[in-house]
Structure formats: structure tokens, C-alpha cells
Amino acid sequence: LITLRGVLTASAGLITILLSMSTASMPVFTVGFCLLVLVLVLHPPRIKAAAVRHISRECVAQGDLLDVKVTVAVKAPFGGVLYIYDHMPEYFGLNRGLNYAHTDFVLKSSVEIEYTVRCLVRGFHRFGPLRIRCWDPLGLHVRDVELPVDSYVTVYPEMERISHAPFSRSTAVYTERQKTERLGEGREFHSIREYLPGDATSRINWKASVRLRKKMVNQYIEEGITDLVIFVDARAVSGAGNMVMSPLEYSIRGALACAEYALRLRGKVGVVVYGDGVKTVPPSTGSGHLSRILELLTAAEASGGVGFSEALEVTRAWGGVSTAVVFSPLLEDPTFFHALESASFREKVIVVPSVPDIEREVSGQYTVRYTLAQMEMGLHISRAATLGRTYIWYPYRKFEEVVLGGMHA
Amino acid sequence: MRAGPLAALGISVVIILLVIGAGDVHSVERDDWRGFSRFRQALEDHGFRTASVRYLPSVEEMNQSVLIVGGMSRRYSDGELAAVLRFHERGGVLVVFDDTGMSNQILERITTMRINGSALVSRDYEKNSCFLRARAAGNMSILMDCPGYIESPQGTVLANTSHDSWVDLNGNLKQDIYEPSGAFPVAVYSGDLKLLVFSDSSLIINSMLEREDNLDFVLSALENAAGGRKSVLFEEATLASDSVPSAGRVVEALSSRLYMNYPLDAALLLVMGTLTMYISVRWRDPPEWFHICRAFEPRLYMMRGEALGPEDVGRVRKLILEYVRLRSGKDAPSREDARSVLPMKLYEFLYSDAPEDIEGVVLELKQLMEEQT
């Protein structure tokens, strides 16, 4: 590639030659000719480069710092000027150092770039490629080299450990059909069985053991949440705000907090993310299940326009789910209220990240438009409150604060 | 690293320019051996006013003058030629000093005379056979430097070479059998045509002017041709240059060429200028080579735009209707229901074809809702 300087030099050469013809001046022609030859002959060296990138962690939480170190070895037949740029994710902020270096080099050199980034946005991010731009000594031409040195980082959403949830702890035990038969450490007695090695001695039923002349232990029905499905609205409208503060980001934080809480109490949790199609993690339990939910929520992006009713259709195959928690800004989804009304959940919880307040924080505007948006949102929330427990999530609040703050009347 | 080669380039250019020298070869401004400065001085001493012309269109109106065309190094453009011919047609006197035949471009539009650029040599010479003497009217002798000769002279021949002159076609300075020989006319004057032609541009250069009777001969011929005109113009638009011209000279030459319908030059300049700008814009460093954190870029949905406009009327009406539904307890409230629960301003807004003061309506509705709450 020719640079701006190269173009100007070539143009100057051509114009000078033109002038020399106009003024019949041989020296002027010579100068123009020399300039043209210079542009045609001088080129940047063909460099051989190798690079290694080291990142301090491959998985981080949203908002954490990450150290990056890149070492580039360059060899060239003659000298030139180098600009090395390490491409970093556009949603990361530089915290320390710079992700590029501008240096002269002579034949062989090694360049190190060290910097620290703050992982502001959740998701799967890529560092790389490494780009090297090399100029000839006069800066007339430039040659770009791209080294496919890629590194991947997973930024998980911020996880909030809550002790108060927006739904009831014992919703499922009221119905026999939905009662879980998993045996655990709860308080409700279920039956006795023969002692097996590894059973806690505190669980031995001594009376039964004496009666049956062998060691017997008590078994209990697990207490807690049994079936919970969390809906996360990831339609394009959920991206209002910015990449750090948006209804989707709040929804993901809330959904993760609810899922972690329910799984901690050995409940079964399913998650549905709708927007650009419907993506699900079917109800299950265990710590491994939290990882699956985490993966799904990490990958969620605000796009598409698939409505709540379609998401609800998917969950019908999961059988009788007792509790539904829906995270949605309630905008531009005409099917929402009707679908939720007709759904057969015993308990319905709606958490609404407040779009007008998020947009006001992001834009700094406090205008009549905000007032209008607030009133519109107020109407949606009033309607939602007739269908289930409804919480409004204002910016900068923790999810537990929202829950403790009480639901919308 | 980059400063070194740049400095070397700069120094080289300066050296080239210094070595070559400065100025147009046959300019009246030059005092060295190739200049016309002494001739101009001689003219001024004889009462002529002199001026040099670098922008030929300006001569059209100077038809009471004598235009000296000496040392042409290129052909005239169509426009330049037209300007010179108009000058001549309007009564101006043309004096040509040329040994290359370049000025035939003018002569062929005026007369049948031509200048043959083949070099004349003679046995009547000084130093070498190219440096020959010619016999002029008034028993004068003039010294010429490799002159050409005038074919088909029309008018009075003012000077001839000696009979032992020949056209040295092969440049061996010897007379070959096929080379024309004899006395060749080297200066012709035609009063009818207002034209004076010399077949040697060196005749009036500083180093030759005072040799033999050159000055007297040229002056007398010029005075005769001028016919009382006292203004002499030196055409310098087509002079050869041996150095970098001044900025003013460049601008003059360029504007002259562009003005005189040199479409190729103009088009070339235009294309190059456009191309340069285009390339300059296109080949900047690509934007992906700069890190810009986009995490905080706002993407507004409900609060896009500043003031409320006509596109928001529907949203506001929907809100008002919702308020009416809530207050009246009817799913499809009538106009009367609306009239009973809404203030006049909101009612008019709801049913007006051209609603006004949308922001006032929003604020009033908010106040109403808060009161209701």
C-alpha cells in the first residue's frame, strides 16, 4: 500500500514533470523524475514475524481485570518503522499500558507489549489478530502483516448470591404430582432404609434398628424449590441503554441470582432465553447445571423479536412447572400479557428493568420524553401487576435490594 | 532513521539546482553570454521602450509595437499562435530570430518563407567554420553562430552568406558533393508583411552582439522595420530554461497554457488532483487499528431524540385512552366517558386533527395520574 506521503510525493513528481514540459525546464523535469523513481523504487522490507500472547486468565467475571502480554519477534532484510497493534475486544477498556507499540527497528528486534484490560461486558471475546504495519525509511509505502495469534476469554456475568428470592421457597410441595422424590437433607420424614457405609450416624433411626435388628437410617423429602423456570427477554429492545447497563444485563444478573438460589436449595431450574429464537436449558438440578445456565446466559445477545408466547410454547414440553420468573422490559411484545395470563404456573413473578430510567442514566437526559416513557412503563407495570408479583428494577440496584424493596402494588 | 535519507534527497536536489544555474536561456534579464540584456540596452539607448512578454494573450492589444520572437524552444499552443497572429494582423511588426525552424509555425501562416534549421558552414569564418561571416546591406559584415538559412525569401534580402558556404547535412564540417552550396539568405525584410526574419537566434546574444557589425546591422534593420514604432516586446513565453523557474514564472506559464486551451494539461491536472484527494482519503490507517471502547455507547429506544414531535402523538393518545379506561372502568370508553374524566386540554388533544403543545399535555397527564395515585 502506498501512504498519503507516497501519493503526495508521486503527485508532486508528476506535476513537476508537467510543469517542466510547460516551462521547458530540464532541471525541473529531473526533480520530478527523481521523485517518481523514489516512489516506485522504495518499498518496505518483507518482514518475518512471530508472536506469542499470554493472558493471565481464560475465564473471568464481568468487571475483572485481565493482564495481557504480547511478545513479537521481527526479522527483516533492512530497517524500517514498525507499528504493532494487538487487537483487543471492543467492549474492553484499557486499564493500564497500551495495546500497541510504535518503534524503529534494525534488521532484527523483539518488541513486548504489556497491558491490562477491564472486562466490562460479558460474553465470549477474542484477542487478536496481531497486526503489524511496516513502513519504508521514507514512509512512502506501507506493508501490513497480520499474525493469526488468537486468544479467547470468557467473561461470565456478575453473579449475585441472594438470600431472599422473589418467589416462594416451598411452592412445589403443595401438589403431590410435582413433589420431588429426590431424597436429601430436608426436614420432612419420608421412610427408613438399611444403613449403608458412608451414611451419617446422626441419621440412624435407633428405635427402628433395635426393632428390626439391623441398622436403619431415616430418609427425608427434600424441602425447597422444586420446579422453577426463568424467562429472560433478550429481544432487540432489551439492548436499550449500553452494553454494561441494559434491561438484558439486569435480566441476566437477576436470572443468575434466582437460578443459583434455587439450585442451592436443590430445586430444579430451567432457563429460557428468547429474542433471536428461543434458547433453553431444561429443568435440572446440581452444581453442573448452574454451569450450563451460566453458559447460556453468557452467550445471550439482545437481538431478534421472538415474543414471550413462543418461549412459553417451548416450556409446555417440560410438564407442570410450578413457578415462572420472567425478566422483561415489557415493551413491544403484544403477546406478553395474554400469554402470561393463560399460562398455568402456580406462581408468576415478573421483574421489569426500567427502560426509561436506564436510558436516562445512559443519556443524561431528563426531558419530557423521559416523563412520557415513564408513564408508558407505569401502565405496562400496572397491567403486569394484575398477573403476578411484579418488581421494578431501577438502575444501580442489587437484585436482592429489588426483592427486598417489595413488589409493585 | 527517516531524517537521513530525506536530508540526502534535499541536498541532492539543491546541488542539482545550483550546478545547473538559473534563468531562461535567451532572456533579456540575463547578463551572461547567452542573454539578450545588451541588446535590450542598445534598443533603449536608441529610444525604444522594451518589455518582455510571458503571457502571450496580452500582446493582442499591443499592435503598435515590434514583437521579437527569439530562441523559441517549443511550439506555440493554438491559443498562443492565434494571439501572435492577431497581433500581426492588427498592425504589429514581427521580428524573428531562429535557427531551428521552430518559428515556421508562425511564418507558414503569414508568408511562403521558411527557416531551414540545417546548419550552414562557410570557409569565411572565425575560429571554426560554423562561426561564419555574412555580408549585409550597407557593406556591413555580420558574424553568425551556426545559422540556418531562409528558404523562398519574400521581400528584401538583407544579408547573405558568402558563396563558399554550404549546408552541412551530415555534420562533418566538410563540403560533400550532395550538400547544397552557394550564398544563402540569412536576413530578409518584407515591408508589406511587416516581417523581419533572421535565421540565427545567436545574432543578438550578449557574446555576439558587438562582434563585427552585428549590432549596427540589427539595429538599422529593426529601426527600418519598426516604421516609427517605439515599443519593442521580447516574447519569452517559449524560451528554454536551464534551471528552476521562479514561482511567478511557473504560475505565468501554467496559467498561460491552461488559458490557451491546452485541454490535455488541464485534464491531467484535474485528474491528478482528484486522484490525490481520493487516494488520500481512502488510504488512511484503517479504523480497526485504533482501540475505541464501545461498552458505554448509548443505544436509546424510548428516549431517542430531544423534544417530542408529531410522531409521538400516537403514544400520548394511547396513554390518555388508557387513563380513561382505568378511570371509567370500561374497556371501550365513549367520548362522553373521556369528556367526564379528562380536563379540556387533554380531551381536545385526544380528538383534535392537529394536536398542539404535546409536551404540555404530557406534563398535565402526569400530574393527573399522580393526583389519582
Question: What key attributes describe this structure?
Answer:
heterodimer, A: 409 residues, alpha/beta, six-stranded mixed beta sheet, four-stranded antiparallel beta sheet, 30% helix, 32% strand, elongated, B: 373 residues, three-stranded antiparallel beta sheet, 11 helices
Which shape of chain B, going by the Cα principal axes? rod-shaped
From the spread of the alpha carbons, the general shape of chain A counts as elongated
Question: What order do the strands of the largest sheet of chain A run in, or round the barrel if closed?
Answer: 17-16-15-18-19-20
Low-confidence stretches of chain B: 18-23
The number of helical runs of chain A is: 10
Oligomer kind:
heterodimer
Distance between the termini of chain B: 76 Å
Largest sheet of chain A: 6 strands, mixed
Write down the Rg of chain A: 32 Å
Instruction: Outline the low-pLDDT stretches of chain A.
Output: 171-186
Number of helical stretches of at least 4 residues of chain B: 11
Structural class of chain A: alpha/beta
Number of strands of chain A: 20
**Strand residue content of chain B:** 15-25%
Helix-strand sequence of chain B: HHEEHEHEEEEEEEEEEEHEHHHHHH
Helix percent of chain A reads 25-40%
Mean pLDDT of chain B: 80
What structural class do the secondary elements of chain B suggest?
Answer: alpha/beta
**Succession of helices and strands of chain A:** HHEEEEEEEEEEEEEHEEHEEHHEHEHHEH
